[in-house]
Design brief:
There is one protein chain. The chain is of the alpha+beta class and 280 residues long. It has one domain: Clavaminate synthase-like (Double-stranded beta-helix), CATH 3.60.130. The protein is 20% helix and 28% strand. The protein contains 7 helices and 17 strands. An 8-stranded mixed beta sheet has the order 1-2-3-14-6-16-5-4, with helices on one face. A hairpin with a 2-residue loop joins β4 and β5. It is globular. The protein starts with a strand and ends with a strand. Its EC number is 1.14.11.17. Pfam families: TauD (PF02668). One of its GO terms (cellular component) is cytoplasm.
Amino acid sequence: MIIKPCNKTIGAMISGIDLVSFDDSEFAQIYQAFLKYKVIFFRDQFLSPESQLKLAARFGELEAPHPFFPHVSTHPQVSEIETTPGNPPGTSYWHTDMTWQPAPPKCSVLCAQHLPDEGGDTIWVSMEEVYASLPEKLKRQLDGKTTTHAVHGFAGSRFDELNNKGESRVDNISRDIQAVHHPIVVKHPETGNPSLYLNEQFTQQVDDKGLEEEGVTLANLFTYSHNEAFQVRFRWETGSVAIWDNRCTQHFAVTDYGDKPRKLHRVVVKGSEPQAYIPK
């Protein structure tokens, strides 16, 4: 197995491994790379839904089927992220998966099924590096503060549809999903490292209005989180697999391919409730 870092801050390409059949020792190396590099990439894997589920289950208990995404008919925990002619992707936002849950996912496993000839890259950013880059005064201002996260990024999207009463499916489901409050700075449950924990798609507001009076806004914090120095951009190929740590990253889907056919399968692993980082 060869593990090659993509850059100095985030991402590694792993080769010389078959994700369908590997032993415990090889998985231990993969897992340590996952923790260290935050997103790991593989080529030429061509996983079946069963194999993808088995791989994801090595990382932990699997999430229930996504409430909005379509899925493989025989495997509801395998979401389909698909573009077809006449069904282009919608507006893309930087996000951390499903932070509208009390316990957002630990990680995701994404496998490319088919792709356009060009375009459709995905970009990840290390939110640990983002936090480390913040001015010390701002870090102190964020100590112990929280933000509100909610499902508001799917209404009107291509994953939405209207029923015979003209009601949004997303809105109807969302009524039963209560907003949650997460720390702005969280402690990684395994490494102990601090991360800035918010995102454009699901973070609605800063809960402490005193922060805004001090000039600390979500827009300002989002600007910090888009720093290209802490990013890695991945060019998908059929059979490519990406596995990322959802607890300390954000990602962004580049939608520069129109409605050319593109399909990826995603399986998500359950996480734990984010805990606030307390500086020493």
